[in-house]
Write a structure and sequence with these properties.
The protein contains 12 helices and 2 strands. The protein is mainly α and 298 residues long. The longest helix is centred in the middle third of the chain and has 26 residues. The termini are far apart.
Length: 298
């Protein structure tokens, strides 16, 4: 009997040990959820990417219109591209359909919509009269737009979302195409009409170089700022809407000119008041954190 009991105890102990050492089986629900998340991160969602495709189509239409000499339609098409581009990200967040594919597609579409299209439109409109200098300026703008988008993708998570590092490419495209729209409608003063090509060259070159600068441009992505907007801002917004609707091309061009200057004005204010440039401060903090992590790993 004692021998039998010891044998039974030994068998029970062995069964417990084998049960504890056996790998736990993952439930079917957790396996399904994990595979769903993997597929979801690589999925191609129709709704947000449809807005991205619409933005690309509007920019492509603008290029075709400029080649056919319809510069008014070409300039307005870029503004429609801006509208669709601003909607795709918001639709993706509202419908929880963000994906890496959508991010990459949006970036490539922005390169065409706000880099290639405005450069070709302004070149066909007036820069071609400057010869080699005209297409060189158009190319510089296009190159700066691509560099700005590449830098933006690399600095995601480094630079604060409250500010843009350099002029955003949609605003630069609006500045260039806004000038084209202004010139086509004959809103330029008579004494500036003979210098249209030279003014377009300055505007295009300024927009391109400002995109690759470190000037901090307000992004408007801070929800705390949006929730604390005072009442007078609403009144000013309503007045701006009335002004824009009465003289659309001139109002839009002036607004984007002011925005294109605001980054340098704020940068000068930071320097004058002794405050650090928020863009440079974020980059310095990221480099310091990376250096500290490297030293800690060693």
């Amino acid at each position: 009997m004692p021998a039998e009991r010891s044998g039974e105890h030994f068998a029970n102990d062995y069964k417990k040990m084998s049960t504890n050492n056996a790998p736990r089986r993952e439930s079917l629900a957790s396996i399904g959820q994990r595979r769903f998340n993997t597929v979801k991160s690589k999925s191609i969602y129709v709704l947000p990417n449809a807005f991205t495709a619409a933005a690309l189509f509007a920019a492509f239409y603008g290029i075709i219109a400029a080649m056919n000499g319809d510069f008014l339609s070409a300039a307005i098409a870029v503004f429609f591209s801006m509208l669709f581009d601003g909607m795709d990200g918001r639709v993706a967040r509202l419908t929880h359909t963000q994906s890496e594919f959508g991010v990459q597609m949006d970036s490539l579409a922005d390169a065409v919509s706000f880099g290639v299209a405005p450069a070709l439109i302004v070149y066909e409109y007036t820069l071609n009269s400057l010869g080699k200098l005209g297409w060189a300026i158009a190319f510089v703008y296009c190159l700066c737009a691509l560099l700005r988008l590449a830098r933006f993708n690399c600095n995601v998570g480094v630079v604060s979302k409250n500010y843009f590092q350099g002029l955003p490419s949609p605003a630069a495209a609006a500045l260039v195409c806004g000038f084209v729209w202004l010139g086509v409608e004959g809103r330029l003063p008579e004494w500036l009409v003979p210098c249209t090509s030279e003014i377009a060259a300055v505007v295009t070159l300024y927009a391109g170089l400002t995109m690759v600068s470190n000037a901090p441009f307000f992004s408007g992505k801070s929800y705390a700022v949006v929730r604390t907007v005072p009442f007078w801002v609403i009144v000013v917004g309503a007045l701006l809407f009335i002004v824009i609707s009465s003289n659309t091309s001139l109002s839009i061009f002036v607004l984007f000119c002011l925005y294109a200057l605001s980054g340098f004005a704020y940068g000068f204010y930071c320097w004058w008041s002794g405050r650090p440039n928020p863009i440079q401060a974020d980059i310095a903090a990221a480099l310091a954190a990376e250096k500290a992590a490297a030293e800690k790993s060693e």
